[in-house]
Design goal:
The complex is a heterodimer of chains A (278) and B (264). Chain A is mainly alpha-helical and 278 residues long. Chain A has 2 domains: 40 residues; 229 residues, MetI-like fold. Chain A has 13 helices and no strands. Chain B is an all-alpha fold and 264 residues long. In chain B, helix 1 crosses helix 13. Chain B is globular, with a radius of gyration of 23 Å. In chain B, 44% of the residues are buried. Classes of the chains: A mainly alpha (278), B mainly alpha (264).
Amino acid sequence: MTRARQVHRRAVGSALALSVPAMILLLLIFAVPLLRLLALSIEGGSLAAYEKALGSELYVQVFLGTFKIATLVTLLTLAMGYPVAYLMATSGRAWQFLGIAFVLLPFWTSILVRTYAWMVLLGRNGVINRTLVSWGVIDTPLPLLNNEAAVLIGMVHVLLPYMILPIFSAVRKVDPTLVLAAEGLGASRLQAFLRVTLPLTMNGVVAGITLVFTLSLGFFITPALLGGGRVVMIANLIEEQVRELLNWAFAGALSTILLVLTLAAFWGISRLARTRPA
Amino acid sequence: MRRLRVSRLLLAGFAAVVYAFLLLPLLIVFPISFSSAQYLQFPPPGWSLQWYERYVDSPNWLEPTWLSLKVAVATMVLSLLVGVPLAFGLTRARFWGRDAFEKLTAAPIIVPTIVTSIALYGLFAQLRLIGAWYGIALAHTVLALPFVIVLVVAGLRDFDLNQELAARGLGASRWQAVWHVTLPQIRPSLVSAAFLAFISSFDELVVAMFLGGANMTLPKKMFDNIRMEIDPTIAAISSLQIVLVCALLALATRFGRGAGMTDR
């Protein structure tokens, strides 16, 4: 064996050795329990749990509702996030730093803290209702909490940074001279944006959409607290099945469906992005 | 040129509204946490430190806080101990299935947390690990690992391997070269990874809810409390957490590389 091959073998050997602890951890504390859960859903070779989940109007409504909320959250974060990311990336250093800080501070604050804050703001005796009543705008408090709108607001707040950050880094990579060249060749500012900047930042947009949509599908805390029991997403359904009903087969089936939907969304969005005419 | 300024101003106005939306909920908890009222009231009728006192004086709140800190520190240490060698393994050699394995390490982020949680709940219940703090720490390590790996792999790919080879050529052992040359060079990545692992564990609710049993972590205690009543003690704890995040974020910005997703 040549010396070079020996060295290569040693490098591969030690690389594998270095990876072993993490591999064991991921296998034992992640892959194995996950496969066990999926196996529980078809215990005894019966597909009854899937028939129950996909055959009943009640559960199909939860799936559709979850998809609807995820879609709305994705569209809202995109509409709010793109302009902010664009402004941030094209500002001077000081403004850029401030903008990043404003996005990262909520990003790293616990979801629980943020959800609590929205309850304080939107509650019957919350800050918004109190203020509106004391200004004389309304007489009786508005029902702002415990509905789908409250869940949407809370989720958009949690997920907006996941949309802003990838778009921000995509816009920052766009060479400004390309935009200047387009304008020099007679394009209006809007045309230059639509024909140059936007296509060049599509990878950031796709990354943001993928993150926000797939994370939305699995949301649990925000609907549980801001929905007041009236907004049930798939994750809330799974939690209820395990904690209150101990129905593992059904929880396993719901988990499998949620996992498949998430992976399909993940794969589907990137595929759609690739076939999109440039 | 005039129209350009106008569109820029409109954009800035829109961004200001979005920033207000992002920051307002964080700011609102501060006045409420200093309220002298006996229940949630806005604007506060007067000021006091009663909610902070209630937090600091109550074992019902302090015990979950210590548990969460213990779990978060263990998660940070463990995810670095396991993640950093893996990052070396992934960047230093080509082996069959390497790219696929690197993608697979991101799986804990993609799989919804509720699914991971009940999967682990089923396993840990059989192993009688429910309620054990190290059980939660192990699960949190799996969730933190993708962040650690992404950051450290990026750090190692930017690092010039010739520096390590030069140290070896000058007589350093392999371990000495890594310890004295490589690790100090990728320190910003390590600091950010440690920060991410700590904070992701400290804030995590769903896994801890299932695996904690009767032992409450701070997020679990807060969740139960919020479900029952909106008590301003939570506002005091929230304020403290926001201050903690600000401090850690400042440290990570000073010593780390762009906290997480913004690098490069």
